[in-house]
Amino acid sequence: MLTSVDTDLIRVLADPLRLRIVTLLAQETLCTSHLVEETGARQTNLSNHLRVLRDAGVVETEPCGRFTYYKLRADVIASLAGQFAELAESARAAAGNKRSCP
């Protein structure tokens, strides 16, 4: 039974730019230059968001010459999705439960 959802990971993904980055990386491995082009964000701002995603374990890096490529860790996203699926199942099972008011 699920006791909690990974709230730290939810906070990381709650930022619109970070969610956009994750969405882009779900489609292909990209370098910072590609992400700047796709998001329109400034390179320094984007680098800060990528650091947060990397620190949270959502993305991993792959050095390639003078560029750094970013790749989404699908297992982390799948784990979070599984936690939400368990939460939904718990809610379905408890649909008829109703606590009486004092």
Search tags:
three-stranded antiparallel β-sheet; 5 helices; 3 strands; alpha+beta
Provide an overview of this structure.
With 102 residues, this protein is an alpha+beta fold. The protein has helices at 7-14, 16-25, 32-39, 43-55, 74-93; strands at residues 30-31, 59-64, 67-72. Strand 2 (59-64) and strand 3 (67-72) form a beta hairpin. The relative contact order is 0.17. The model has no long low-confidence stretch (mean pLDDT 92).
Estimate what percentage of residues fall within beta strands. Answer: 5-15%
Q: Largest beta sheet: what is the strand line-up?
A: 1-3-2
Number of helix segments? 5
The geometry reads as elongated
Low-confidence stretches: none
**SSE run:** HHEHHEEH
Gap between N and C termini: 28 Å
Query: Which structural class best describes the helix and strand composition?
Result: alpha+beta
Q: What is the share of helical residues? A: 55-70%
Main sheet properties: 3 strands, antiparallel
Question: What's the SSE blueprint?
Answer:
Elements: H1 7-14, H2 16-25, E1 30-31, H3 32-39, H4 43-55, E2 59-64, E3 67-72, H5 74-93
Short summary:
With about 100 residues, the chain is of the alpha+beta class. It has 5 helices and 3 strands. The model has no long low-confidence stretch (mean pLDDT about 90).
